[in-house]
Every structure is written in C-alpha cells, then in structure tokens.
Design a protein that fits this description.
By secondary structure, this protein is of the alpha/beta class. The protein is built from seven helices and seven strands, in the order βαβαβαβαβαββαα.
C-alpha cells in the first residue's frame, strides 16, 4: 500500500518505518513524508533516504484547521497515497480529515492507551506511580487517542526513572512495534471495523 508518513519534527519513528519498508516482503511502500512545519528535521532525513517530501505549513491557515487539512489532503491524493502513518505529527486532526481517511490512518502514542491520552504521557505516568508504561499503535478516530488498538508494548517503570529515561525506553519499543503495526494494517490483517456495519 502506498503510504505517507506525517511528521512535525525530527521523525525518529519515521526512520524506523522507512527502514522496515525496505524489506522486499513489507506490505507498505513509503511514497511520501509530509510535514506541517517546513523546518521539520525529518524532511531532510527522508530526502536522504530517497523519499519524496512535502511541507504544508499550518501557520498561514490560522485557526482554520480544516482548510489546512484540505491542502494537506490534496498533496496526499496527488501522490496517490492509500494509507497514512502519523509519526510525531503534532496537530489534532478534525473529524473531516479523520472520517475521510477512516481505517487508513494510524498513529503511535507513547502510553498504554486508554491510559494517558494526550501529551506529557511520561511525566503523567511517573506522577501516577504506575509500575508499567509503554506505547500503543492505534487507528485514529475523531476522539483524541481513542481509536482501536493495533499493537502495544510494555516497559517497566524503574526506581529512579525520570521523564528522559522512561521516554528513551518507550521510544525503543515505539521503533519496534510501529513497523509491525503498519504491516498489519497494510496487509489487511488489522482492520478498523465500520461502526455503521457493527450496529447494523
């Protein structure tokens, strides 16, 4: 499946996906890396890997998030993208975009969802005193970080952990399971059940 990765920063998960997709039997081809920030470091890394890049700066659109997403959607469709992987894309997507790409839009989140939706997950996990933390690959739905889980990985919270040490341990697992999650979706092994069909 022709896959785009959306980023806002350096793109470490993007690199993990690009490297995994080089395998001959990987069911997704990374055809585009797009960023909402023209200065995102990951764009250079994608270029160096021979992947087409695009930037759609969100700032000129002000508070009109859907107008930004329509411009982004046009870039994705021009590149014949079939599947989207969010990798540190720091924009909350509107229901318009999420519904348009429903079942073909996935994300990696740095917590064991449904725990710690949103941001600052590592600090919140430490504050809560949990014994285990981790990351989740999930389908994106209109409600933030609420889509069905595709894969999760657990890491122990160790005595003396701070936000940086816990984050580093979780990030290693993100790089391991995100390519696996993308492969499951691209191959059709993991699907987002249509809510309308489920209730019919």
């Amino acid at each position: 499946m022709r896959t785009a990765i959306l980023i806002s920063g350096r793109g470490s998960n993007m690199v993990a996906l690009i490297e995994a997709a080089r395998a001959a039997d990987f069911p997704a081809e990374i055809v585009l890396v797009a960023a909402n920030r023209p200065d995102a470091g990951g764009l250079e890394r994608a270029n160096a890997a021979g992947i087409a890049t695009a930037s759609v700066d969100h700032r000129p659109f002000g508070k009109d998030r859907e107008a930004f997403e329509r411009a982004l959607d046009e870039v994705l469709r021009t590149n014949q993208v079939e599947l989207i992987a969010l990798a540190g894309f720091m924009r909350v997507l509107t229901p318009w975009f999420v519904t348009r790409w429903q079942g073909r839009l996935i994300n990696i989140h740095p917590s064991l969802l449904p725990d710690f939706r949103g941001t600052h997950t590592h600090a919140r996990a430490l504050e809560a005193g949990v014994a285990e933390h981790g990351c989740t690959v999930h389908f994106v739905v209109p409600e933030l970080d609420a889509g069905p889980t595709i894969l999760q990985a657990n890491v122990p919270v160790l005595p003396g952990d701070d936000e940086a040490s816990l984050s580093a341990r979780v990030l290693k697992q993100e790089h391991r399971i995100y390519p696996q999650g993308l492969a499951l979706v691209a191959s059709g092994a993991a699907r987002l059940e249509d809510p309308a069909a489920a209730s019919a």
